[in-house]
TrEMBL record:
This is Predicted oxidoreductase. Residues 15-344 form the NADP-dependent oxidoreductase domain. CDD domains: AKR_Tas-like. The keyword Lipid metabolism does not apply. Keywords: Oxidoreductase. GO terms for molecular function: oxidoreductase activity. Gene3D superfamilies: NADP-dependent oxidoreductase domain. It comes from the Bacteria. InterPro entries: AKR_Detox_Biosynth (IPR050523), NAD(P)_OxRdtase_dom_sf (IPR036812), NADP_OxRdtase_dom (IPR023210). The keyword Oxidoreductase applies.
Length: 353
């Protein structure tokens, strides 16, 4: 597969990115290294992680994923030059006090988090450093509406951007990006960069899948006009769009053993655990089968072929899942199938917002 340029940066990545949030929780280190090796063999050059991983977030596993990747890099000299490595600084801790002492995201927090990621990753530079979620109060992670009464902003976007600029100037970060952002946030970061001669964001990493296409409600226009690339995460809707929950009809404890939504209550309480999300996923999964596709292949091909998506982040727990996800590349979806997809969205909306 050809590589694509991220925004106006000099980063050229494969249109499939290996997400790693399962490493250190569902995936043991040896298995994680095997997945990383195989992804590299299959031509993937883009790896994404975060300081708060593994997921679900716990004090005991915070930073574990970066540590696993760092040891892999140390054991494979020369690999670092072949990959684009992305990680993220967590936003305000909000119930995760182990991430940092404050409940904001100060300039000092950004610098300290970057230093920690560099140590764990055993690298001298991060290719793409992203703010995992806004310091502002925004509708994300299951919150549907913006509520100005909940605003607790402590650090301006300008201050955050200046901190990131300092990391770029120091040679510790090459390019910057955002995650779980809104049209306002993307536009303001670009405007401030232009106004003050600071680094320009290259990417935004937001959820995008059949049961959550909220990115298409204005953020796609913002990113298109400002040349900011979408890194689409959760393309299979946290597993709902693989069909694994179809028979049980629930994302609760009765769902397939070992599945994230059935195992981790904290994750289930968010957007992916809603009954409406599962009901919609089952409709899309049935549609896939009617057209001779597996649910996973339809879900991934939808992201792989959308003009809005620069690179799709896949998260796997086994080599078999990795192969399945990569083999879905090149799948073409007919106009008739896409029309049926849009009809379901028109009826059911975006239940996993």
């Amino acid at each position: 597969m050809d590589t694509i340029q991220l925004g106006q940066s000099d980063l050229h990545v494969t249109p499939i990115c290996l997400g790693t949030m399962t490493f250190g929780e569902q995936v043991a280190e040896a298995d994680a290294h095997a997945i990383l090796n195989r992804a590299l063999e299959r031509g993937i050059n883009f790896i994404d992680t975060a300081e708060m991983y593994a997921v679900p977030a716990r004090a005991e596993t915070a930073g574990a994923t970066e540590t696993i990747i760092g040891r892999w890099l140390a054991q494979n000299p020369g690999v670092r030059q072949r990959i684009v490595l992305a990680t993220k600084v967590a936003g305000p801790s909000r119930g995760m006090p182990w991430l940092r002492g404050s409940d904001g995201l100060t300039a000092a927090d950004i610098v300290a988090s970057c230093e920690g990621s560099l140590r764990r990753l055993q690298t001298e530079v991060i290719d793409l450093y992203q703010i995992h979620w806004p310091e502002r109060h925004v509708p994300a992670f299951g919150i549907k509406y913006y509520d100005p009464t909940q605003e607790r902003t402590q650090t301006s976007l300008h201050e955050q951007l200046e901190a990131l600029a300092g990391l770029v100037k120091a040679g510790k970060v090459r390019h910057i990006g955002l995650s779980n952002e809104t049209p306002y946030g993307v536009h303001e970061f670009v405007r401030l960069a232009q106004q003050h001669g600071l680094p320009r964001i290259a990417t935004v990493q937001n959820p995008y899948c059949l049961i959550n296409r909220s990115y298409e409600n204005a953020l796609d226009e913002t990113c298109h006009r400002l040349n900011v690339s979408l890194l689409a995460y959760s393309p299979v809707g946290f597993g709902l769009l693989t069909g694994k929950y179809d028979q049980s009809g629930t994302t609760g404890p009765e769902a397939p053993q070992g599945a994230r939504l059935s195992t981790y209550e904290s994750v289930r309480k968010q957007r992916w655990g809603r009954p409406e999300a599962l009901a919609a996923a089952r409709r899309y999964n049935a549609l896939a089968r009617q057209h001779g596709l597996t649910p996973t292949r339809l879900a991934l091909a939808f992201c792989y072929t959308k003009w809005q998506v620069a690179s799709t982040i896949i998260g796997v727990t086994s080599l078999a899942q990795l192969e399945e996800d990569l083999d879905a590349w090149g799948t073409n979806l007919s106009p008739e199938l896409l029309a049926e997809v849009d009809a379901i969205r028109w009826e059911l909306g975006d239940p996993a917002l």
